[in-house]
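Q: Start with the shorter request: fold the first protein.
A: Done. Sequence, then structure:
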Amino acid sequence: MAETIITYDSIYETLRKEKYEPEIQKLSETFYADTITYLKEKKAIVETQRSQQSIFSDETVKTERQIQNIKRLLKELYERRENKIIQLALFSSRSETQPEISNLLPEEQEFFRAINANLTLYRKGIMEHLLQLKYPKISKPKDIKTEEEEHTKLVRFLNPVPKFMGEDLNIYGPFYADDIASLPIKASSLLIKTKR
């Protein structure tokens, strides 16, 4: 997807498309980071306005109201996408098929996999046992890691890190301070070693 500049209008348009299209919409991979940057810029504008004028000036009040409206739009956007992801996982669990999830952001893909795994676990443990005239039994795997989890490590960034190419030839980033990401072991180790 082409890079989108985040504005109030672009967030509103993103929500409008998500609301009226049945399929989950493709967002820029940097949507979260770009939105956070945009909101931080808006907050900085409010701080500047406060230092230069009265707290209750029209411009300050207008900008603060816009920040609240943006947060409301983002909450609704998240909830609509969340609902579609849950429905997708439910369909996948019931039909035992793997749907196309490329329109999901990386965090949403992880969310989808977790929900799908739990739905499938309980479906097999309850419904399939009942159909075999057996008492329901949920056998939760003991901390079994997926193949992806075995080769990645969850890290929190202390400093901004620009885009980089991992050993697997995938592009990662950019990341900002306090971002959390699951990265290949070698890249994670290097970042930890350099205190990033």
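Q: Next, the second protein, separately.
A: Sequence, then structure:
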Amino acid sequence: MPEVVVAALIGAVSLLYATAGQAGGSAFVAVMGLAAFPAAQLRPTALLLNVVAAGYATWRLRASGAVNPRTFALLAIPSVAAAFIGGLLVLDERVYSGLTGSLLLAAGVLLVVKRSAVRPAREPEPGLVALAGATKGLLSGLTGVGGGVFLAPLLIGLGWMSAREAAAISPPFILCNSVVGLAGVLLSGQSASSLTPLYAAAALAGAIIGWVIARQSMSERATRLVLAALLTFAGLRLALR
């Protein structure tokens, strides 16, 4: 697949994810899977793109006061430790493809079944929050997927947060996991694609435009269905590689 097409797809999925309060790690992996990137380049490249997209969203959210500091700390502290450990682990290419493909398929399903309605949040059990954070951090480091696409449906489904609160906490959570996971990945000896600057520029452009669109009247359901189709197709391709 030509590099400019890959960059355009990365920009497009970054835009779509930004409209739903996500960075796009699962879709970045999906695009690179479709483009047949070497497995050794998938994780570091996806994590770098996550840092760019989630960093922009976190910067925009920093002054809003929408993030609950206590809940974020309970999620992030065990998550970043687990993400670093996951980043140090290098899976066999077939195992990596099967695991990541399965997670992309799961992400696609979650995007379809996730409800956008705001529901009352109840105070979560600290131990369960920490366990959820650690699990998603480990998966983030292992696969290069930031974890936000799994985090938000979980937080909403368990009644821990409203949809708005979950969308607000996702970017800083993804950013923390991606930075630490990337450090582990680089220490493991893997390196990103030489064209990462081009892809990062596309991801940033998509995140900026997506943030603007998110403030308008775009249908969240349509966004989720498009992303779900991409994740499902790429997940099947990776899982069957």
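Q: Describe the second briefly.
A: The mean pLDDT is 81. The CA atoms of residues 155 and 161 lie 6 Å apart.
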